[in-house]
Amino acid sequence: MKFEELNEKIKKVYGKVRTIDDFHWHISDNLIHGIHKKSGLRLEIRIAESKEAADKIAQKKEPGNLMVIVVPGKETFYVNNGAFVLALKFLRSTIQDISDHIVWAGFKVVERDGALEQEDIYEYLGGRLIEHIKSGMVNGKDYIFWQFYKCEHCGKYVDIENLVRHMKTHGEDVKEWSEEKYEVLELSFEDKKVYNKFGKEVPLEEFVEETQDFIKEVFES
Ligand SMILES: [Zn+2]
C-alpha cells in the first residue's frame, strides 16, 4: 500500500500524531497502530462514524491495550471501558498525556543467548491519567511522578535517590541486586500530598525520614 492511497480521514488523524516520537507508528486504511518505544505498550487509534459506533469498538478493547477512538464533532471526550472516545482536536494532547503516564518502574537483568541484558519495567498509570484529564492537571506543573522502593526491612518507602544509602543501614548492598522494582507515586503540588496509582493518599509516615525530607523539599521548590 502507498501512502497516497490512504483515505483522507486516516491521513487527517495520522497528521495529528506523526510528530509524537514516543511511539513508532504503523498506518493502515482503518487503523493507526502505535508502539510506545520505551515500554513496548500498544496503542490503537481508530475512527468511528458516531459515538454509538465508538462505544461498540470500545467494548472490544483488550485489557492492557491502549485505545483512542476519534469521532466526528468538536467537543466529545469521554472514557468507555478504558478507551478514550474523543474529537480530533483532543487527539494529540491525549496521546501525549498517555505517554506521560507510562513511567519507568524498575529493571531486571536477564540472561539471553549467554549474555546479560537489562529489561526495563514500565507502568501505565491509566487511573491517574483519567483523573488528571478530568481536573486539567498538567505533568511537571501540577504533579510529578517519582519512583519509590518499599523497603522489606522497615516496610517504608524510600525514594530512588536515597535507596543505596538506606539499604546500607540494613547491611544491604544494592549493587549486588539484579533487579529493582519501584512503585510509582504521584507528588501533587496542588495539595502537597503523595498519591498511589489508585489515587489513594500515602501519608508521610509511610516514608523513611530521609525521603520525607526529600518530599518536603520537592513541595517547597
Ligand atoms: Zn528500611
TrEMBL record:
Superkingdom as given in the UniProt entry: Archaea
Positions of the TBP-interacting protein C-terminal domain: 103-217
Domain spans labelled TBP-interacting protein N-terminal: 3-102
One Pfam family named in its UniProt record: TBPIP_C
InterPro entries: TBPIP_C (IPR049118), TIP_C (IPR043112), TIP_N (IPR029125), TIP_N_sf (IPR038230)
Name this polypeptide is given: TBP-interacting protein
